[in-house]
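Q: Given only this backbone (368 positions), what sequence would you predict?
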């Protein structure tokens, strides 16, 4: 960033900037107003592409980055809100950390030794036969005030279950189809959420393929890279998987996880796997990989046609409309959850699950 760009960001963070417009702002509107054009174009725009695979001119600041939005809302400016948050935290300290949890040093990232699948596998082993696989929910009805009837298509045939409460953590567009017979208004609200396509392309190169200027003490270090759209790069971002975690690649090789697609590049769904690998490899050779390096070893390609829910301007209104419609219809005990409710990050999904569990517990206590 330039010196004028840094000064603009500093003064804006202190509150020397235009006032809020009195309407819901997009991420682009909020950042340009508070921190200036350079911060948006060189930091926030690639960050939005990397996290949401989204368009910051359409993403809602309040819905997508609520913690930052609340800083200005509560403190008059980003710095003012930060100071107030620190003061409030001192008055209301967090509950003590569970001693069974690991204690990482500072801010860090985490995964599991054999990949993220270890988490649902561990939950499944704990719950045992309470977890039903290959059960497809066909319908939900509420014949009386005693609860819900759920009809499933299973490997053993059709199964009907009764439940006092239901939590739906499926994508909003699936929930919309299932809930339409119960509430057209709720179904319509849930159908408004947009999920752009994203492809995950995992490749490996020999370590000598990395450009020397990208190495630190002879190693590829760091989290990865996010790419501003202004640089003419199609790939949204790249994670240095073998630098982040041990035992992700054999000695002498690096493992790179690349994301491509998003709301500004929906055409990836019509590309072949070789097209996607070629695009990622071409981009990597512009900044990280030597142009004359050998072809990458392709380890995985996964295209998600509807990948990440976009928290667009109006997102929170649509979500509240769906919940309110269910409430008006008398469908107490039917809860909405998942990443379009809690947030797209894994940590927020876990936190949202605890919040949903608390809501269900409170409801069942009243029900009893």
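A: Predicted residues:
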């Amino acid at each position: 960033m330039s010196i004028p760009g840094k000064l603009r960001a500093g003064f804006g963070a202190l509150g020397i900037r235009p006032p809020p417009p009195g309407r819901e702002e997009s991420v682009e509107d909020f950042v340009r107003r508070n921190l200036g054009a350079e911060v948006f174009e060189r930091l926030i725009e690639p960050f939005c592409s990397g996290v949401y695979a989204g368009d910051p001119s359409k993403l809602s600041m309040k819905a997508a980055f609520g913690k930052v939005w609340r800083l200005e809302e509560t403190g008059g400016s980003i710095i003012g809100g930060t100071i107030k948050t620190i003061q409030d935290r001192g008055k209301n300290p967090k509950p003590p950390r569970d001693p069974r949890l690991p204690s990482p040093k500072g801010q860090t990232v985490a995964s599991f030794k054999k990949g993220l699948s270890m988490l649902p596998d561990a939950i499944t082993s704990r719950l045992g036969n309470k977890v039903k696989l290959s059960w497809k929910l066909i319908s939900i009805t509420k014949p009386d005030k005693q609860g819900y009837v759920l009809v499933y298509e299973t490997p053993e045939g059709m199964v009907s279950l009764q439940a006092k409460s239901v939590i739906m953590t499926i994508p909003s567009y699936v929930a919309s189809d299932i809930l339409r017979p119960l509430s057209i208004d709720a179904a319509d609200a849930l159908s408004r959420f947009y999920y752009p396509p994203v492809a995950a392309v995992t490749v490996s190169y020999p370590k000598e393929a990395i450009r020397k200027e990208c190495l630190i003490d002879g190693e590829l270090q760091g989290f990865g890279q996010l790419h501003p759209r202004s640089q003419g790069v199609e790939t949204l971002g790249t994670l240095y998987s073998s630098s982040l975690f041990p035992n992700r690649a054999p000695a002498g090789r690096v493992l790179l996880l690349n994301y491509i697609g998003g709301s500004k590049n929906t055409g990836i769904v019509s590309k072949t796997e070789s097209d996607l690998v070629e695009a990622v490899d071409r981009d990597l050779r512009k900044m990280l990989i030597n142009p004359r390096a050998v072809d990458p070893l392709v380890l995985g390609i996964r295209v998600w046609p509807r990948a990440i829910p976009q928290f667009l301007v109006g997102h929170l209104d649509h979500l509240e409309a769906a919940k309110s419609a269910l409430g008006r219809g008398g469908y107490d005990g039917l809860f909405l959850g998942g990443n379009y409710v809690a947030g797209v990050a894994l940590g927020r999904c876990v936190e949202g699950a605890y919040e949903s569990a608390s809501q269900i517990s409170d409801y069942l206590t009243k029900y009893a």
